[in-house]
């Protein structure tokens, strides 16, 4: 009887130990991962720049963030995202960040670091807390007016709708400046100044926005210039036909020997020739300016494509 009781107590104790281990599994994992780990300077700088509090910083370090070039990054993150890949969070493994090489996109790695940290945080939410947060983010997402964010969210939704709540949790927390108080308070447990992260997001997006706005302005300028050139070309065709007709009449008058009539008509004819030549020169200037604007517009488009390529860690860039 004593042996049976002892065995029973041992089993109960083992179950209790396993239960505690299960509930403490994250803390145990974290302690193991942080053992002898010293965050590299660049990782600490990312945590500082994104204003991670102690809780978020600890979790960030647990996943030992790695700042990778394209080749290394693709080995870690191939196929882990639905859109352009800038970073990935791999459960029980690590956080991997693509080091975007273009300085015009400064700020993107900070936003990506915070984005992936929030993926790790989302994984650790209780079912009840996930439901609460998902309801809050879904409500915000339904009223987003930023076309770039809307397109990003829809890209995820079209590929795999099940990931949308998780992605919203990261996207809204790092890229949307104004949030409802309850959601703002939620993110406060990770970042002491979330607005600083949104500033980084706005900074690198500005590189695209500025060029898109300039291209749009130049397109409008080209449209107006093209219309002016077309009107002038039609006028030149009409003037040319009139001049030819008047020239033929002048030559016939001269052949008829009507000197006075010829001399009286020459002055008016020459005025029209001068007007025609002035319009031809104007047309040349307009065409030259138009071509210069086309070149300027195309250069901006090339710059924008360069930024897209710089932002994409894939080995090839798909057509837009």
Structure report:
By secondary structure, this protein is mainly alpha-helical. The protein folds into two domains: about 20-205, no CATH class; about 205-310, Helix Hairpins. It has twelve helices and three strands, in the order ααααβαββααααααα. The protein has helices at about 1-25, 25-35, 40-50, 55-60, 70-75, 110-125, 125-140, 145-160, 165-175, 180-185, 195-255, 260-310, and strands at about 65-70, 85-90, 95-100. A three-stranded mixed beta sheet has the order 1-3-2. The protein is rod-shaped. Residues about 15-25 and about 315-320 have low confidence and may be disordered.
Notable features of this structure?
about 325 residues, mainly alpha, 12 helices, rod-shaped
Tell me the fraction of residues in β-strands, as a range: under 5%
**H-E string:** HHHHEHEEHHHHHHH
Shape: rod-shaped
Number of helices: 12
Total tally of structural domains: 2
Determine the structural class based on helices, strands and strand pairing. mainly alpha
The gyration radius over C-alpha positions equals: 34 Å
Sheet bearing the most strands, described? 3 strands, mixed
Classify the helix fraction into a percent range: over 70%
Distance between the termini: 77 Å
User: Strand order of the main beta sheet, please?
Assistant: 1-3-2
Q: Low-confidence parts lasting 5 or more residues at pLDDT below 50?
A: 13-23, 316-320
The count of DSSP E runs of length 2 or more, i.e. the number of strands, is: 3
Mean pLDDT: 85
In short:
The protein is mainly α and 320 residues long. Helices cover 74% and strands 4% of the residues.
């Amino acid at each position: 009887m004593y042996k049976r009781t002892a065995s029973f107590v041992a089993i109960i104790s083992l179950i209790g130990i396993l239960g505690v281990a299960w509930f403490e599994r994250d803390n145990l994992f974290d302690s193991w991962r942080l053992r002898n780990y010293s965050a590299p300077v660049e990782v600490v700088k990312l945590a500082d720049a994104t204003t991670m509090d102690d809780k978020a910083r600890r979790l960030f370090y647990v996943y030992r963030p790695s700042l990778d070039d394209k080749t290394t990054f693709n080995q870690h993150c191939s196929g882990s995202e639905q859109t352009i890949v800038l970073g990935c969070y791999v459960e029980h493994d690590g956080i991997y960040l693509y080091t975007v090489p273009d300085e015009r996109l400064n700020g993107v790695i900070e936003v990506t670091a915070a984005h992936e940290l929030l993926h790790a945080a989302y994984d650790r939410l209780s079912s009840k807390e996930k439901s609460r947060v998902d309801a809050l983010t879904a409500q915000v997402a339904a009223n987003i007016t930023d076309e770039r964010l809307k397109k990003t969210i829809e890209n995820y939704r079209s590929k795999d709708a099940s990931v949308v709540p998780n992605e919203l949790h990261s996207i809204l927390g790092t890229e949307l400046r104004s949030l409802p108080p309850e959601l703002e308070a939620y993110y406060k447990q990770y970042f002491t100044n979330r607005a600083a992260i949104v500033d980084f997001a706005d900074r690198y997006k500005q590189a695209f926005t500025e060029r898109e706005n300039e291209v749009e302005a130049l397109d409008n300028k080209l449209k107006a210039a093209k219309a002016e050139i077309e009107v002038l070309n039609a006028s030149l065709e009409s003037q040319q036909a009139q001049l030819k007709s008047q020239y033929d009449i002048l030559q016939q008058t001269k052949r008829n020997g009507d000197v006075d009539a010829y001399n009286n008509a020459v002055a008016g004819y020459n005025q029209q020739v001068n007007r025609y030549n002035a319009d031809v020169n104007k047309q040349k200037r307009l065409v030259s300016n138009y071509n210069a604007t086309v070149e300027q517009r195309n250069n901006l488009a090339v710059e924008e494509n360069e930024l897209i390529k710089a932002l994409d860690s894939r080995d090839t860039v798909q057509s837009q």
